[in-house]
Specification:
Layout (H helix, E strand, L loop, with lengths): L13 E5 L2 E4 L2 E3 L3 E4 L5 E2 L10 H8 L5 E5 L13 H5 L3 E5 L1 H13 L4 E5 L7
Parallel strand pairs: 6-7, 6-8
Antiparallel strand pairs: 1-2, 2-3, 4-5, 4-8
Length: 127
């Protein structure tokens, strides 16, 4: 069963993910990144879970998503709700999963036309 269309014009889709690298469309990225459903993929600026702070999640909010999929690296790890307080206050949902699962989930939601942002953490240990 297909979960997404073959083509989604104007929609960002993760086309490949492997340890230390993510492809969005034809572009390859080897750093943490923000992938909005539409628009430009952006570096996220955090090289580890411990470097994440409230400003990182405030930046996510500036993309105006209805939902954020946070990819926490090779394994599932959660951040303190205080870090994503801006999302909570704006009533934007956030789901946490490992980065591979986050990429798959993002594709399904973006393919459905949802206003979703993938906040994907790639740490040096993910290489």
């Amino acid at each position: 069963m297909k979960f997404q269309p073959d083509r989604a014009d104007g929609v960002n889709l993760v086309t490949r993910q492997e340890p230390g690298r993510i492809w969005v469309g034809a572009g390859a990225y080897a750093h943490s990144l923000l992938v909005p459903w539409r628009g430009e993929v952006q570096p996220w600026g955090a090289a580890s879970l411990h470097e994440l702070g409230a400003p990182h999640f405030e930046r996510v909010l500036s993309l105006q998503p209805e939902l954020v999929i946070f990819g926490s690296g090779r394994r599932l790890r959660f951040v303190a709700p205080a870090l994503y307080r801006a999302l909570i206050e704006a009533r934007v949902g956030m789901e946490t999963m490992d980065t591979a699962a986050a990429c798959r989930t993002f594709n399904v939601l973006a393919g459905e036309g949802r206003s979703v942002v993938a906040a994907l953490l790639l740490e040096p240990s993910d290489l």
